[in-house]
Write a structure and sequence with these properties.
alpha+beta, Glutathione peroxidase, Glutathione_peroxidase, peroxidase activity, Thioredoxin-like_sf
């Protein structure tokens, strides 16, 4: 199965195809608005503003699996992130990024780019996956890797 074959739900519950991002570099992030890493929303937004016209798609997938740090859903979540962090890049419906209910997207991402010591599981919010224009998962970044620290890697893929 290709990454582009995977379907996701928008914040409003509409089914969307990841094939909409075919030909773009994607930065896929599991987010949580109440997480200590939430200030990274601003850096992600800056990447979106700087590189969207060059082919970057920053995409957020909220998850409530880590200390219940994402209590919001749908429009209220989108509005909170817009008002508090200036987010205009897409935030999709909440999903499971680990465990028995793991969403097919995260099953694909974690298999293609295992974490530390080969771990497939997501350890915390704001784990980032960088995908090239052909849909190949290039790299996984830990939650502590700020958007600014991964910018040069993104720039290389956009060339």
């Amino acid at each position: 199965m290709s990454l582009y074959d995977i379907q996701v739900k928008s914040a409003r519950g509409e089914t969307k195809d990841l094939s909409d991002y075919e030909g773009k570099v994607m930065l896929i992030v599991n987010t949580a608005s109440k997480c200590g890493f939430a200030p990274q929303f601003k850096g992600l937004q800056k990447l979106h503003e700087t590189y969207a016209d060059k082919g970057l798609a920053v995409i957020g997938f909220p998850s409530n699996q880590f200390a219940n740090q994402e209590p919001l859903e749908g429009d209220s979540l989108s509005e909170h992130c817009q008002i508090n962090h200036g987010v205009t890049f897409p935030l999709y419906a909440k999903i499971d990024v680990k465990g028995t209910g793991i969403h097919p997207l995260y099953k694909h991402l974690t298999k293609a780019a295992p974490g530390f010591f080969g771990s497939k599981g997501i350890k915390w919010n704001f784990t980032k996956f960088l995908v090239d224009r052909d849909g190949k998962v290039i790299k996984r970044f830990a939650p502590t890797a700020t958007p600014e620290k991964i910018e040069s890697t993104i720039q290389q893929l956009l060339k």
